[in-house]
Amino acid sequence: MYLTPQRILLAGATGLTGEHLLDRLLNEPTIARVLAPTRRPLAEHPHLDNPVGELTGLLPQLEGPLDTAFCCLGTTIKQAGSQEAFRAVDHDLVLAVGARALELGARHFLVISAIGANPASSVFYNRVKGEMEEALKAQGWPQLTIVRPSLLLGPRSEFRLGERLAAPVLRWLPGKWRGIGACTLARAMWRLALEEGRGVRIVESDELRRLGR
Hints:
alpha/beta; seven-stranded parallel sheet; two-stranded parallel sheet
């Protein structure tokens, strides 16, 4: 069965995937309101509510009710400056968004994690992503969708040498390891948001590519 979310929270609307998802949401005629807090102002739209400032300060001020929440937040250790700063965004801030969205009545939370997420991993990045997933499960969401894309492909505002070098190879890897376009991921997340369900669903990158075609 498919649902039509009417009132949406989008955290991370200025990121690579978030930009594509915001554009899709604002062009859906069935959506009455998109609440998208950002650090810099977005272009005005009649269905967009865009509080501006640091997300940690904005979260308590957000008002509902909400039906569905998307979280496209994410950084890198290099961009954040340290492992602690990375964890503050990719773990702590994601959980804060989830908790606030739940308080405002959202029934479905869709969050971007990463391929290889595992709370027992020896790799710091994968371990933080896995710990974030487990903590979100503990929040008690009626419906929680965790997407685990491979390397995201698409133009970024900041230069990432490692991703630039890896992208040509990852386009041709098999299965879930193949890179995925940010636009494809956004389409897949929107399709997943329309699906009624209960409990936790983890969607790997190969399925995301299929859903986002």
